[in-house]
C-alpha cells in the first residue's frame, strides 16, 4: 500500500498534500512507469481521509499527465514521467537551512559593510511610505523611465553637492539597484572582451568578478595606507578606465590625498581614459573633515557611484550612477535592458526622506554610534593582543584592518577561528596578486553590539592562542 504521511495541522490542504507527494515520487522514480496505484477507496481508508480527497488528487495528476486510467483495470503511472534529479536540487536539499540559522545566532560575525540593521529608521520610513502609497496618483503605479524619478535625482544632486562636492545635473544621474548594478552598468557601458582595467589591489572581490565578466583583464596597482600608489601607474597601457575607492579604500581603509588625485587625473587625461569612483560608505568619517569626491575635480571624466546600503540598509537595493553627459543615453538604454527601472514608489519615499532632512539626521546619529563601536573594538583588540597587532584603516566606514605579527591566516586557521564561534575575513580574499596580505584580517563592526564585540575579540584570541 502507498503510505503518504498526512499533516492535519498544516495550512496545505489534504488534496494538495496527497497530490504533491505522489507527484514527487513519480518524478524521482520511486513510483515507476506502469506501476498501479491503489484504488481511491483503498487509499482513502488507509490514510483516513475522505474518498473525495483522493479522487481530486488523482484527477489533478491525471490532468497533468502523471497518471493514466484504464477503464476497468485502475490507475497507473504514465510513461515519460521520471525526471533525473539535477545537482542543484540535491545541493539545495542537502543544505540545512534551519541548522545554518542557528549557527548564525551563536557565531559572532565580523562581516564588513553591514550597518546596524536594528537601528533602521523604521517609523519615519513607514510614515513616509504610508503617505506615498496612499496618496500618490494612479499613474505612479505604471511603468516609469529607466533613469529614475526626477524627484529623487533632483534632491540627490543637491545633497551630493553639499555633502560630497559632486557636480552634476539631475539629467546625469541614473538610479540603480545598489552600487552593484551601477558597477554592472559601467562594465557593460565601457568594457568588451580583451579590454584592460587598472584596479586598486586589493579591491572587493565581487567588483573584480563584475569587470572580468565583460571579458576584461585587470591590471593591479598596489594600495598602501593612503590608497592607490600612483607612482606605480604604468605608461605603456591603454586601459578603458581606472577603478578607485578614493574616499575609503576597500578593504585597506586609506583616503587618497589630493596629490595622488591630481596625478590620477593627469594620468587619465594623458591616456584619455575614464576614472570610475566608488563612494560606497564615506559618509561615516570619524577623523578630520569629510573628504570631497574625485568627481568634483574632473566631472567630465569621472563616473561616480554611490549607495544607500551602508547609510540606510542593503535591503533597499538603492544606489546611483553619475555619468559624464556623453555616456548618459547609452547607460539609460542599458538600464532599460536590465530591469526597465528601479521601483518608482521606493524612489519617491527615499526622495522624501532626503528632502525632509531625515537622511542627514540619521547619518549624524549613526556616526556617533559607529564611532563608539569602533573605539570599543580598537580598545578590546589593543588590550587583549597588545603589541602583537597593528590596527589601521579605521578613520572611515564600518570596518577596520588588523595586521598580526608573523601570523599567516591559513584556511585551517580560519576554520579553527570559526569553530570557536567567531567569523573574521581575510584581506587575501580581495587581492588580485596573491600572497602579500596573508597576515591581515578585516573586522566589520557596524552591526555588532559592545557585548558581541567583547565576546568576539575574546573568542578570536582563544582561537589564535590554540593555533
Ligand atoms: C567597495 C564596495 N562597493 C560597492 C558595494 C556594494 O554595495 P551595494 O549594496 O550598494 O550594491 C560594496 C559592498 O559591500 C563594496 O564593498
Provide the β-strand percentage band. 5-15%
Small molecules held by this entry? pyridoxal-5'-phosphate
Q: What's the rounded overall pLDDT mean?
A: 93
- Counted up, domains total 3
Low-confidence parts: 88-104
What shape does the CA trace take?
globular
The main sheet comes to:
8 strands, mixed
Rg (C-alpha, Å): 28 Å
Calculate the terminal CA-CA distance, rounded to whole Å. 57 Å
CATH top level of the largest domain? Answer: Alpha Beta
Helix content: 40-55%
Discrete helix count: 15
CATH A-level architecture of the largest domain: 3-Layer(aba) Sandwich
Largest sheet: spatial strand order: 4-11-10-9-8-5-6-7
Annotated CATH homologous superfamily of the largest domain: Type I PLP-dependent aspartate aminotransferase-like (Major domain)
Number of DSSP strand runs: 16
Would you write up a description of this structure?
- The protein has 467 residues and is an alpha/beta fold.
- The protein folds into three domains: 95 residues, Winged helix-like DNA-binding domain superfamily/Winged helix DNA-binding domain (Arc Repressor Mutant, subunit A, Orthogonal Bundle), CATH 1.10.10.10; 121 residues, Aspartate Aminotransferase, domain 1 (Alpha-Beta Complex), CATH 3.90.1150; 240 residues, Type I PLP-dependent aspartate aminotransferase-like (Major domain) (Aspartate Aminotransferase, domain 2).
- Helices cover 42% and strands 15% of the residues.
- The strands form four sheets. The protein has an eight-stranded mixed beta sheet with strand order 4-11-10-9-8-5-6-7, with helices on both faces. Strands 12-13-16-15 form a four-stranded antiparallel beta sheet, covered by helices on one side. Strands 1-2 form a two-stranded antiparallel ribbon.
- Helix 2 packs across helix 3.
- The radius of gyration is 28 Å and the shape is globular.
- About 4% of the residues have low confidence.
- The structure holds pyridoxal-5'-phosphate.
- Pyridoxal-5'-phosphate binds next to helix 8.
